[in-house]
Amino acid sequence: MKSILNSIIACALLCTSLNVAMAQESKTEVTNKVPISVYVPEESCDIPVEAQNALNTKLMTAAAQNGMGATSDFTQFCLSYTTTKTGMQVLPGAPTKYRQEIDITLYIVDVMSKKIFNATTFSTHAVGNSETKAYIACFNQLSSSNKNLKSFLVKTNKDIVDYYEGQIDNIIAIAESLAKVYKYEEALFRLSLVPDVCPSYHKVLEVATGIFQKYIDDEANRNLAKARAIWNAGLDFAAAAEAAEYLALILPEASCYEDAMALSQEIKERVGSDIQYYRDLESRDADRAHEISMTQIEAWRQVGVSYGNNQRDTYYNTPWVF
What pTM was computed for the model? Predict the structure, then answer.
């Protein structure tokens, strides 16, 4: 569990840095930040890769600068699109230039409910020295300063907050039901979807804190049981070393931590202290800084986000949109 939690910390710090950088780049003064990701549909595979990347970057930047918390993590609401080429001309003269006419339809998709939440279409046309550059010139028109795009994103931001505010009690009920059957990661995933700008977000924090403690305790109790069984079966140096691997995974925040320390003391008295576990204990204090950081960046949320990212292929399969 320790390695998993360290991965969660690294992921969280990366996401935090990304959000800070996006916020610093934004020239629009906003307070609400609803997380949203950009989903690239398979149907866009006919777009040149360079142009597709340019469009994805434009959409993420526009979202970040117009009230949305652009992220690469799983989000219930994602920004997707389709493009329709309505015209293409090779202009006379040298050098050869291409004129593209493209309709870009943006969708805000609720991937959990499989619904289109909002949609709008932009008609673009531009000229470039190649078909790809003409594509990119069209996509560049969807900048963060585009008034219609800005209006679409700001309205979507408000609509999503209103949606979660109306559903927050139901989301909490689902999370509590999942926690009752030990599906802690999925429960935290459901809670992590609620943006902290919701007026009732304090309800989510209260429930999530309790579920996260149960998650830590459940993992710790499993590891303690394994350690105890291994030690009791061997009562020798080999058993001590194997049991220590499980004891080292038990965090000080776990309710069974004192029992784990009692078992480690029993092992130490029997075989001595020169095993890896006790060297690991000496580095525990250094790890505390990371554990404090986890608390500050809502460790429970990162457990949920990590679970959601693993479900991406399940939820982000959206052919029904197109």
Answer: 0.73
State whether 78 and 187 are in the same domain.
Answer: no
Same domain, 180 and 285: yes
What pLDDT shows up at residue 46? 74
Does 284 fall in a domain?
Answer: yes
225 is written with which tokens? Answer: 């049981």
Do residues 171 and 264 both lie within one domain?
A: yes
- For 226-235, what is the mean pLDDT? 93
Same domain, 145 and 183: no
4 found inside a domain: no
Q: Give CA–CA dist 150/30, Å, rounded.
A: 12
pLDDT score of 6 more than 60: no
Q: Does 247 share its domain with 174?
A: yes
Pairing of strands 77-91, 34-38: parallel
Find the domain containing 226 and state its range.
167-313
Number of domains in the chain: 2
Catalogue the E-assigned strands of the chain: 34-38, 68-70, 77-91, 97-110, 115-128
Buried/exposed code over 174-206 (b: 16+ C-beta within 10 A; e: otherwise): ebeebbeeebbbbbbbbbbbbbebbeebebbee
For the cut 90, the answer to whether the pLDDT of residue 137 exceeds it is yes
| Bridge partners, residue 35, by sequence | 69
Q: What's the whole-number mean pLDDT along residues 111-138?
A: 90
Residue 98 DSSP symbol? E
Q: Quick check: 106 and 100 in contact, CB under 8 A?
A: no
Give the residue, 21 or 94, on which the prediction is more confident. 94
Structure tokens at 246: 């499980």
Give CA separation, 316 vs 82, 125, 168, 288, 309, in Å.
15, 30, 22, 36, 10
Query: Which helix (DSSP H) or strand (DSSP E) does residue 290 occupy?
Result: helix 284-296
CA distance 21 to 29: 15
